[in-house]
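Re: your question from the hallway

Yes, I did run it. Sequences:
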Amino acid sequence: MSDKLFQQIRKFIDLSANDELVVNKYINTLQLNKKEFLLHDGKVCNDLYFVEKGCLRMYFINKKDSEQITQFALDGWWIADYMSFMNNTPSNYYIQSIEKTEIVSISSQKFDDLLKELPHLEKYFRIIMQKAVAASQHRAKLMYEMTKEEFYIHFSTSFPEFMQRVPQYMIASYLGLTPEYMSELRKKKL
Amino acid sequence: MSDKLFQQIRKFIDLSANDELVVNKYINTLQLNKKEFLLHDGKVCNDLYFVEKGCLRMYFINKKDSEQITQFALDGWWIADYMSFMNNTPSNYYIQSIEKTEIVSISSQKFDDLLKELPHLEKYFRIIMQKAVAASQHRAKLMYEMTKEEFYIHFSTSFPEFMQRVPQYMIASYLGLTPEYMSELRKKKL
DNA sequence: CGGGCCTTTGACTGGTTTCAACTTCTGTGG
DNA sequence: CCACAGAAGTTGAAACCAGTCAAAGGCCCG
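Structure:
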């Protein structure tokens, strides 16, 4: 069910068996097949999503009417449009499964209630958010210092298994380059 | 002293006069003149910094031996190299004042101690981090969807007062364009 | 008042995108 | 289980956004 989530929480704070029961009152679990949506443009991002197993992508539609991927979420990652989530404003993003995926979700209302009932979970989420900030600082640095070619090589050597798992055009989009150019880079490196 | 910090904390949680005294045991305040450093390459980022008043920049040295700015921090913002802060690993960044600046700082050790003594501050920091994640999602989206020219126009119209406050070459660096190209864009828009 | 840093200008270059056409893969229905 | 339509990936030519380099001008601060 939501084993990986509890396992992860326990990496950062103590969580009693009873706490676990409490958490279970607030969360939902859902099973997604390939290409199912958790969020789409125009809707408020009412939930935080935790990937138990599988893979999600987050994207928006750019001016040229094509999908621009901004994030992937793999096992053990939380994902949401946080701006929309916090302010209850409509999102411009889509969140969609790339493969069969198990999700734990919690609505913003229940998130508040849960944290009221179990305040020591604040620490877990504070750490998770802190890690997310660290990760985005790191990613921003990479994008500043690397050319597209270097960024592609960096990514493909850092996450070779991931390259197998998702279609090329999605990786190209995430890396901010065209499928055509990525194809050229690929050829060059084989 | 650290008025703005307490004021900000109270926007998100209750903070008693006594809590305030406790916090004061853990934090430091410091006054910086222009161009003083809080962090430099090779050093561990041992503190979180809160800008009471003034302006900081965070940058690293790229392959071409020039400064690449990744973040600014204005009044009311927290800044740190979170990767270095959390893992106690050496940073590749510099954090430096751009003008006369008042800072509140807290070391990672004292940060932990403070949160142990006042656990309900976890909520404040959770929210701060969550906002930081939201902001970086937003920034990433802008960088994906805009050309450099659009990004420059967006930035200069969104923060006109800031444009006056810091040298052009720093803004160019932050926006990821050369001073020469930015100069060209400027001319075009006047 | 002078030196060095910041900004501007213009010519040239190249990394990356765009477009269009072609090939290969994949999944769905008959 | 095969066929075939649409999706994904490749190729090559042309165009362009933005960087590089070099040199001159402006301006701040000691």
